[in-house]
Amino acid sequence: MKWLFLDNGIKDRSLSIDPALRRIGIFDGGYTYCSYSTVRLAAAAVVRVLDNPDKTKNKVVHVQSFCVSQDEIKASLERVTRERWTPVSMGHPVYTPFLLDLAQRDHFEATKILAHLVGVAEGDYATESGLDMTELGMPMQMEPLDYVVRKALELESN
User: Is residue 157 part of a domain?
Assistant: First the structure.
């Protein structure tokens, strides 16, 4: 399985979202679509995988709560908080080698940012082969983005 957790990523800043400063890191201009999940949905998928070992053995399982761009996440953050969020471009060609160098030296924050960068660059699971949620008996309906963002921000502030 592979996924980016939007709810957890807001709380732990692993998706380059900083609620305290109202900043969001933007890769690829913010318009690339990427599949995101919530921890709750991923946990439900893990249970389904364990319940279906013959069907899921050696398969990639695609789990998504929504497929959105970073611009759409920024817009959701602004709707939920009723404040303007500052986009911070993270796509500079010098930035990625710098992060790679830090990650190779076990720098945890750099590793999280690189995982997010790769997730955004290669994260539209609708185009990949593998098992999707319907094959696990899970509904293929998107979770409400603003609701997930609101809940994550509430938990982040506690």
Answer: no
pLDDT reading at 111 higher than 70: no
Buried b (16+ CB within 10 A) or exposed e, 16-28: bbebeeebbbbbe
Name the most confidently modeled range: 22-31, 89-98, 118-127, 130-139.
22-31
Q: What is the pLDDT of residues 120-148, one digit of tens each?
A: 655 655 555 556 778 888 876 678 999 99
CATH number of the domain enclosing 80: 3.90.25
pLDDT of residue 132: 72
Asked whether residue 50 is assigned to any structural domain, the reply reads: yes
Nearest to 3 by CA among 79, 150, 83, 116: 116
User: How many angstroms separate the CA atoms of 93 and 120, rounded?
Assistant: 16
The residue segments making up the domain with residue 31 are 6-149
Determine, yes or no, domain membership for 154: no
Q: In 3D, which of 137, 158, 149 has the Cα closest to residue 44?
A: 137
Number of compact structural domains in the chain: 1
